[in-house]
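[09:14] KT: can someone run the structure on this one? pasting the chain below
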Amino acid sequence: MSRSRLLPGLVTAAPALAVAFAVHALVPALPAMTVAVALGLLAANVPGTAVWIAGRARPGLDFAGKHFMRAGIVLLGLKVSIQDIVGLGWPAMLIIGGVVLLSFGGTYLLVRLFRLPQETALLVATGFSICGASAIGAMAAVRRIKHADTVLPVALVTLCGTLAIGLLPLLMQPLHLDPLTFGAWTGASVHDVGQVVATAQTAGTAALGLAVVVKLTRVLLLAPVVAVAGLHHRANSSGEKSMPPLVPLFVVGFVAMVALRSTGWLPEAWLDAGAGLQDILLGAALFGLGSAVRIRTLLHTGARALSAALAAWLLIALLGLAAALLMTA
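[09:31] RB: done, structure tokens below
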């Protein structure tokens, strides 16, 4: 695709990103990624901008939603340190793995019970159980799910993650949770890394530190889950002339970045730069995905989809709470 076709959409994303980061700076409880999705949704449905978003800006925004997402997943690996995860201990690691498996399977079944398509169920289960929109992008690639079909799952995972930011801190006192247990609960049940940080920081630095490590343990499971999905797709698609890679190249890049981070060779300044670039790439990707959502289309299937997502959110919150109580007992 020519640069001239991509440029209008990419230029459109730039001021939206600036606004998203500014809002996050003013209101730290609102992750910039969540604001980016909301701005994309707004831009696509306001009469003054909808024509531009659906027209000249569309190729660039679609490019950002697909390719910037993949680049952001690669850089996500720089946040994961094997040493930090192993430091949790094997019992905690097994508990977290169990939560991911139960969350994935339970969410998939719930979404199917609400009669949503199999592809939607798979993407929602992946996003809710592992790491939000990043996991959805990885699963869509390995299962060759259309880019347009990732829009609804991303909207649902963003909405429910935002719900967690507001609701979980309110439950800390009624449930008599100490900061460490609350941090473990947040890390085990909230979908996106930014949403985990926004939720856990309300309980202090100890809660935030544990929440991030627990969450990144879930993130590390992205590669094996995608690999298993790739194997399943190959086993059931013998008639296809060409197969997608067992593990997409950008997921291999994610694993490589995990390994690089775990060596301890990279200076803190490089890690900070990588985190900043990842935020820019994922922010642009999520703005692009949000801008593909049409309110009319969302309302058409929205009631069933939202009900399924809320049921899955409740399931994962309960599983995460049980895991947190076990890890901190």
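[09:33] KT: thanks! The CA atoms of residues 148 and 319 lie 31 Å apart.
[09:34] RB: yep, looked fine to me
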